[in-house]
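residues and backbone:
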Amino acid sequence: MMNLIVVSFDDFTQDPAGARADSTPCAGFPDSWLDALVGTGQVFSRDYAAPGAVSTVGLHFPSSDHAEQFCLCVRKAASLLGTRAHVHKVPIEQAHSTLREVKGYDARFV
């Protein structure tokens, strides 16, 4: 069973008031942090807001427990790093159509 998740990150460089008070507003989520959080998941697409700053990422996980742990961690880390994560869990019956739709955008597939 595929647990598909799409996460988008806010760009707070133009609107610093949206970022957490003690963080530096950033354009997206740092690529290196994302790689560290993925764990057993697999990234199928990445979109960048700026070099090294991910604006949207598509992932799938081997279990719902792995997916849920990632969601909790990425939301918290995003807040601390000056952005906000919007997590979209895709139901299994919509996975293939969502993947087709994502291919229509300029996301870099890995």
Q: What stands out?
A: The beta strands are 3-9, 29-30, 42-50, 53-61, 85-90. The longest helix spans residues 64-80.
